[in-house]
Amino acid sequence: MYDIYGEAALPADVRERLRITRDLAQAFHERAPEHDRAGDFPFENIEDLKASGYVRWTVPVEYGGLGLSLEEMLMHQEVLAKGDGSTALAIGWHVGILLHLRETGAFPDELFRMVCESVVKEGALINSCATEPATGSPSRGGKPETTAVKVPGGYRITGRKTFSTLSPALTWIMVTATVADEDVVGQFLVRKEDVEIVETWDTLGMRATGSHDIVLKDVFVPEERVIVIQRPGVQAERRPDGSGWLLHIPACYLGIALAARDFALEYAATYRPNTLPHPIAEVPHVEQKLGEMELKLLAARTLLYDLARRFDAASPEERVKLQPQFGAVKTLATNAANQVVDLAMRVVGGRSLSRALPLERYYRDVRAGLHNPPMDDVVYRNLAKAALARRAAGQAGR
């Protein structure tokens, strides 16, 4: 595998963490077919992630974590996804949100400290659950139908959230709700034990992410677990990060594509039908498909890691300017991942459809990436607006 990471030059502690994630990925790979067929949640994978310390790697150092950079987080997420895309995507929301909260200061200090300490000491997991049946993804700007009613000492929240990834294993749930009788939206930290999980997740791909519905019925949230109250469309005061943490999504789908590429390479290099004097890797049209896979992966991964490094080195203001490019990585990577897996299946041929091989699972799993935010139309629109703004600024400076 070509070395986008520059692994030989990495510090010893980073190489050791990559060894840990590769061991985890191998275990996940062995369990993945069973969980995919059953569509159940891989609790044992989550326990392995906790036991390895992985769940606390993006917690700030001052709270007992390792404070990993975005670049290194993406390395590990890509490796895990080579083993099992569902597990990688699920845990990616947890480690990514912790990095996001660390970089933006989006939580009140004491609340963030409490969450981080629970992650470090108890292996607690956190995710944001904001998508709803009527409004869809919050990235489209819909106002939550979930409502929060002000009561003495806090709020009572009622509503339903969909696509709640990692829900069977969560400890903390970040929930958005419209505050009753006010034109404001709040974000609240809810305990998993206070909600009902309705097992609705039965999908074509990514079948083991546990992305069920969460139902809140008059759930009380004390004042100290109110994250923010703000008017729709108004950003709370925090350090902006351009949503760079969402690069965990393309890293996951590229990891799946790498697994498909590796399988196709091995197959092509070793399979020799009795009609040929050599393996099919030497057949021109197969060689071309292998080369196409390499180019698509090289382009997407180079952009992914280049932007991750730029994020890690940038100021908050510079990170905001990178946001259209973060979206571009997601679109480029998820579309490339779909194309790579398709090419891998064409190399392997009819056997790739067999459930005895992993390719048909990879094919189903990568399709999910097309529906993770930001969607392609949003990305193209943002890139166009950024290009037009640069043009206008250039003309104004003449």
UniProtKB/TrEMBL annotation:
Domain of life (superkingdom): Bacteria
Alphabetized InterPro entries for the sequence: Acyl-CoA_Oxase/DH_mid-dom, Acyl-CoA_Oxase/DH_mid-dom_sf, AcylCo_DH-like_C, AcylCo_DH/oxidase_C, AcylCoA_DH/ox_N, AcylCoA_DH/ox_N_sf, AcylCoA_DH/oxidase_NM_dom_sf
Signal peptide limits: none
Domain named Acyl-CoA oxidase/dehydrogenase middle: residues: 129-219
Residues in Acyl-CoA dehydrogenase/oxidase C-terminal domain copies: 251-368
Residue ranges constituting the Acyl-CoA dehydrogenase/oxidase N-terminal domain according to the UniProt record: 24-99
GO MF term list: acyl-CoA dehydrogenase activity; flavin adenine dinucleotide binding
Cofactor(s) needed for function: FAD
UniProt-annotated binding residues for FAD: N127, S128, A130, T131, S137, R140, T165, Y271, H285, R346, V347, G350, H371
Residue span of region Disordered: 131-151
Keywords: FAD, Flavoprotein, Nucleotide-binding, Oxidoreductase
Family, similarity comment: Belongs to the acyl-CoA dehydrogenase family.
Family matches, as PANTHER family: ACYL-COA DEHYDROGENASE (PTHR43884), ACYL-COA DEHYDROGENASE YDBM-RELATED (PTHR43884:SF25)
Protein name: Acyl-CoA dehydrogenase type 2 domain protein
Species of the source: Alicyclobacillus acidocaldarius subsp. acidocaldarius (strain ATCC 27009 / DSM 446 / BCRC 14685 / JCM 5260 / KCTC 1825 / NBRC 15652 / NCIMB 11725 / NRRL B-14509 / 104-IA) (Bacillus acidocaldarius)
